[in-house]
Amino acid sequence: MREKQTQHHRIRGTTPAVVAAARQLRLNLTPAEQKLWKALQKRQLSGLKFRCQHAIGSFIVDFYCPQCRLVIELDGDIHNQQVEYDEARTEQLNQLGYRVIRFHNSDVMHHLDHVLQQIRQASEQSIDRHSKSPRMGDLGG
């Protein structure tokens, strides 16, 4: 009988340490992350699948929708002190083909319906943008 080999597949560019850190963050969500995750999980928003505390390269993003390559980041008060870092991180993710939208924790806690509406709009725009861009086989020739 063959021994079952377990092989863990990682997203290109991540490391075992980043994946482990994301797993740990999933166990310790902030109240705002918990509230938004409860609204996004199990395809509750427009049938879209979201991932929570997802590793992308060396980054761990709060929420990610692979279908629309949409990253959702929640910002607490600490982010007021790291604006330049957040902007650089967003720019790097944009260059990798991801769209990043940000919300303050208080928006999630007090205006969840509005946040979900903005996420829905951003996901629709991202899906439209990706469906209109030519794919490798569509370039003719």
Automatic annotation (TrEMBL):
InterPro entries: DUF559 (IPR007569), Endonuclease_DUF559_bact (IPR047216), Restrct_endonuc-II-like (IPR011335)
CDD domains membership: Endonuclease_DUF559 (cd01038)
Domain of life: Bacteria
Pfam families (alphabetical): DUF559
Domain DUF559: 20-122
Protein name: DUF559 domain-containing protein
